[in-house]
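We modelled the chain as a single entity of 355 amino acids. Its sequence is:
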Amino acid sequence: MRRLSNHVGTTVFASICVALVVLVGLDAVGAIIDQSADLGRNYQFSDMLVYIVTLIPSKLYDFMPFGCLIGCLVGLGILQGNSEVVVMRASGVSPLRVVGFVLKPVLLFILLAVTIGEYFSPYLDQLAEGRREYLRKGESAQDSTSGFWNREGNEFMHFNAVFPGGVLYGVTRYRFDDDKTIEEASFSSRATYNAVDGHWTEENVSITRFFGDRTEVDKKVTRYWGSELTPNVLTVNILPADSLPIASLSDYIRFLRQQNADSADYEVAYWRKLLQPLIIIGLVLIGISFVFGPLRESTMGFRVFVGVVAGVAFRIIQDMLGPLSIVFGFPPFLAVITPVVFCVVVGVYLLRRSG
């Protein structure tokens, strides 16, 4: 039985790998076409390729459920085409036992997805975006059409590029008095965060102070900048909710609730990331049940087509239920768990019928 389990697991594992390579490859081609419009003197084709490659772990995480679904359909389809599934069934191997064989390699991909989503994606996403913005604008003057804005009291700040670990490029700061009259505007080429002292150090600073009928210009090599802004706060505000690790999402949801602010978007992202293993298992159960049921005599191409359609339908339902939970006020947990439960129930039902 162990040899049979290894054979099924190896076939499914290889099929999932191929499916992920195809999905990520197609997405990369689309990204190259989309990013071509941003090419310029400072942001060249090689820089664009580095940007796309840096985002590959995040794309692997995003496509993991669909890759596992299509890979299971293809892998079991290969075994079905070689009549190996028929032989297994004739030998007394139940569909649920086959599910166990398939879930072994799937668990490896679930572990990979969790590792990527928690430890690699947040850092690499911020690194990729920061590097791209730095190459496009770098230490030049403020470009308000992109970058990141932040407000702290009577001071407004804009950063051209934000790198992980507390490194900012193109830092513009505007300070106003209580009457909304500008008091000072400054620009620094770079600012770095000192985690020990909890402050920022600006470099190559140009300062303009406003005194009613006159202005005063000052330049400094470095300047101390005390602020409540930290690299963790920047990460939460810059990255989309789906790219944040579970711990950061949990902390930020708690903070928003303390401020009586709306946290629904972050709660949806939190439950999606927390329930990602169940999402993958639910889709895999659907795929296995299709092979044993409706798609038993179908061609490989049709199985792949059904897998893509099922994956897209699942994603559409997920994307619809998330905003609906915000509009109608039902718990985001229900918006995320409902399609998962549906997949599990349908998969188990079809497997029991085929058994």
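As a brief sanity check on the tokenised model: The first strand starts at residue 148 and ends at 152. The first helix runs from residue 2 to 35.
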